[in-house]
Design goal:
Radius of gyration: 23 Å
CATH superfamily of the largest domain: Single-stranded right-handed beta-helix, Pectin lyase-like
CATH topology of the largest domain: Pectate Lyase C-like
Number of helices: 3
Number of domains: 3
Strand content: over 45%
Structural class: mainly beta
Shape: globular
Length: about 525
Amino acid sequence: MNLLYLGSTSVCLELENHNPYYSAEEYGVSLDGAKLYSANTNVFSVFDLKPDTEYQVKVSMASGSEETVSFRTKTETCCVNVKDFGAAGDGVHEDTAAIQTAINMLPEGGRLYFPEGTYRTLPLTLKSHTTLDLSENAVLQAIPDRDRYPIIPAFTVDPVTEKEVPFAGFEGLEIPCYQSFLHASYAEDIAVVGKGTINGGGKEGGWWVDFKSFPAARGRMVFVNRCKDVTLHGITIENSPSWNLHPYFSENFSVYGCTVRAPKDSPNTDAIDPESCDGVNIIGCLLTVGDDCIAVKSGKIDMAKKYKTPADHHVIRNCLMQFGHGAVTLGSELAAGIRNLSVTQCYFEGTDRGLRIKSRRGRGKDSVITNVLFDNIRMDGVLTPLVVNMWYNCVDPDRYTEYVWSREKLPVDDRTPSMGSLAFKNMECTNAEVAACYIDGLPESPVEAVTLENIHISFAEDAKPGKPSMKNFAEDCCKMGLYLDNVKQIRIKNVTLDGVVGEKLIVDHCDSLETEGFDGE
């Protein structure tokens, strides 16, 4: 077993196997010889532990095998009950002042404990070296009164040094934003843990209607700006005003065993969108939202030129992603580049697209994607499992201009993005509908290389037509095979497709094509 997270009162563990998200068999979890519960996922947690205490967790498989791990929980300086600061937790009274005062007063290394109850509050600011511990049936409930939410400036200017001090951003731009529900800036060593829930009141607060007319960008559920060592463990997050978790220019941001939920029709409620971060771990999470489940970003071109901070060292593993536009997406705000990313042992269910990379002209020369691996993925009911789209039609003001959509080979300049080598391996995809794989590079900047290896994709009998990618003039298709255009090198090995209508392989503008064990040969 892997020990993913160890705090003062909780631990998160991971079974070592090759099964996406679910264990091959059910197992029991015992603590010091007493059975706690049964589970069937590769990642599991134990809560309500005592600080600085030795424990032993045993996993007993249905087949009879057992595995044990021993550990000592971390120490803490103190535990403070939020009700001792006057929080009512009755779902009626406002608890903002009580909670924020408790956070401010909490000693370094302390834990703020929320017993069962509903705590109505406005946005809260977290501070370094503290833990928020939400017990089972504890709910942090956002008050749906947008006029009382502070607006955070994109940056201020230091009157002494005349240097900018950045504070806020959204969708790849430095712009003013409403304060996010849980907000941290220039902080470190923060944890939010427990079996409780954070509810952002997205619908009740009117955040999902006419939001483009707001005086500032919507806040997120959790926003951390230029922070280090931030961990979320076990909590449930639901009904965010927009993106749920948004680490921004931060280091070592980890999410273990969390659930993120939003209605399928809620706008821009991406589950986890790390932007220009170094060291992100998303492991053992259930993500079901109204947009991308995970979208890795590094800003639009102006921000990339200014900070030159790529997304780096991201690990996504053993997650279940449902019903979003894309399960794991790179971009489209990726102007500073994305590198050293792996997505493994994940299960995608009912998303429009599975593994999705989206870019476009105008993202810039630093928009380079390198060392990206997608491996051991299971998909069911994903309309188009694999998409690489360098013609993305996003909400930028020039989205409908000829520069964006022209199929001519344009001159390469400072605005031209690039796509390095991409590897898609060991995938089982059932009940696809639109296309098996749709990869469309730019004529002036083709995708460097694509490897498709050990992949089986089958289509639903009642598949309906749709657009495989979001680009200008996209045409509907249904049960399309592998489509690759403007890719320099293509390697297809041990790939089988069932239920394709038409050719199984459509390739154009390719320098090198190698196939082995492909049933479309």
